[in-house]
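Fold this: TonB-dependent receptor family protein
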Amino acid sequence: MKHFSFLLLFGWVLLLAYPGRAQQGSLLTGTIKDEKGAVVGFTTVAVLKAPATTSVTGTVADANGRFQLQAPTAGTYRLRLSAVGYLPKETAFELSPTTPGHDFGVLTLQVDAKQLAEVNVVGLRPTIVQEADRMVVTVEGTAMAAGNTAFDVLVKSPGVFVDQDGNIQLNGKSGVTVMLDGRLTYLSARELRSMLEGMPAANLKNIEIITNPPAKYDAEGTSGILNLNLKQNTQRGLNGSVYASSNYNFQQLGHTYGASLNAKQEKWSGFLTLDASRRVGGRDATFTRVFYAEQRTTYFEQQATGNFVSKSPPVVRLGADYNLSKRHSVGFMAGYTFRKGESDFLTDTYLGSSPQEPSRYIDADNFSRTTYRNFTGNLHYNGQLDTAGTTLTADLDLVRIDNQGQADFYNLFTDLSTDQLTRNVEYTNTGSELSIYAGKVDFTRPLAAGHKLEAGVKVSQVTADNDSRFYFNNGVLVLDPLRTNYFIYRENIQAAYLNWSGKATEQLKLQAGLRLENTHSLGESYTTGQATRRRYLNLFPSVFAQQQITKDYELGFSYSRRLNRPNYGSLNPFRFYRDPYTYEEGNPYLRPQYTQAFRLTHTLRKVYSLAFNYDYQTAVISEVPILDVEAATTKYTTDNLDTGHILGLTAVAPYKLAKWWDTQNTAVVSYRKFSTNATNGFLTNEQLYYMLQSNHTLLLPSKVRLEIEARYLGPTASGLYQIKPMHWVGLALKRSFLQEKLDVSMNVNDLFKGYRYRFSTNINGNVNEFNQYFRFRSVGLTLRYNFSKGGKVETKRRNTNLEEVNRAG
């Protein structure tokens, strides 16, 4: 490890020692600011051939107002700048063989007072642009951004689905990474949903859907990345919003409320968000199992009901940036979450040799209490090393998570042939602490002819401390050593990457990268003395190409290799009790899953797209039921299947049915096959899967907006499970009042209760089925008031990520 860390440091020193200025050559460069000296990010830059008005080339300035693009041939041109809220600006310039490029220095835009007074939103649907390595859904300036939340926009993005608990699927695959401005949120799925529901969509600039992430991102994760880029805060002084919402799932009432504030004074800017909630939920389920033993057959029939309530005082997130100079800034971000939860899981179980003639009845009632704390901290630096756009960023991250739980298990056994009763009470006390330390440095250097080089290093250290104790509680607590475990997991990762992008020709864009990750891990059970040590060094290449075939047709190709490391909790060999015949057990021998992803994308008129994809997976991480047919018990564990194959296509087709009626449509069709040769023998699971999604936005009279979300998911294969079809219909009515400052929305989720989980496995003839509904159907009301005051300011954007937190859940 020492030698590897030294090589990373030595390579980085060499990179920084290289001269810090890009070759100017035939580049057009400059920085865009407003009248007060604040940068104007994401300005459209167009080069016009004088005296014609047709653009010959162009680009978009970055978040710091800088731009660079390949200069055209010698001649007289005009540079045109345009940005929302500013007057257009044109500048004439000449190019010649002796001066093939031009540095415009600082270009100043004037505020358009008329546009600031009134913004007329005319587009219903966000525009979609297919780039070489991602799809970009532009939200700014559309009706979708008015009166909606960031969560509303996310769930209407192509191929995205989010359930009530915040679990996200992309094109039918779970395990999606969500970032804000390239930075992970460090939140659980439910907390992430709460944060996005509290964020106005007007804060969003765009959403990047990255199905095959390039080398700059961590190799962890095979389902893709959703990166929500926020608009720059353009208000001096104080601005923000307050909101409150309530929802009812026809059994429980929940609510959330909060506020977001942004402030700016001279050289510093900051933000503060507060989100408090009472989250509720539950499930109604049926579990059916059939065990075929040598001497007998056992039928297991179980009815279950679960409820939970999670209460959280205001979750606090805050941050600030300070400009050391025009080119250098430092800042911090911090967050604290405290949550208490209570839940129950009540089951009635019948066992017997026939489903009509049970011989035993078990009334099992489980009650649990949890206390959860999450602290995140970040220090960052952002520097512009020259006027050509060379940048250096650095981040230090700290995450501390403490999760304490207690549970009581009351089991009443009845022999139905004799009516004899037996009572058994058990108790568990589980505590887990997670610490993550990470540091990274990223370097970007523009090169000649519009090419760009990116490089970086990252080091992280993770410690997961789990002390789980199980007791018999029949009058006095007696420790059960077979179901008690003290487990500590330690992991160190060192990573480095190099990424190049540029144009091979005017019609062909290329990008290639290579990421190296070195992982050392040690899992130790102090109860059993078992230790599992792993060391693996991996290379993760990525290649992207985008060819402009005609004016209206583009063809793109991408390839990447990625991995999924095991969830920290899945490595803990502790047995998590569910009922006397069911438990979950971690697997310290879990190995990382590897995926090679190929994607071919056709884009027509920059609107319609059709993508063919093939994923080849090895050591697939999946839940596996292990059956003890003689004892009629089931152990659920996480194991590695041998291989997985996913072959399919994804079509995106937005369509305007009328001036006031817009739609966004996505279809996914794929063939999935998983196979393994493990404890249960050789097993194969395959299925043709399809998903249809259609989102509708209708502008009704009196400025009322109706939004409809409809989705149908066909049968699919996931690991060893067969999943039956499910569907979802959601409605929302929205209207703004008080000169667009007050937004009111009413919504209904899962109108027909169609989003029901029905899974099954058939292992050597033994049946394991479950049918669960998680009370997704609900009605809700949300009020949001937006306020703003002040002039234009500058805020910084950072582009880092921390994938280690995603594996804590």
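The two ends are 28 Å apart (CA to CA). The longest helix spans residues 2-17.
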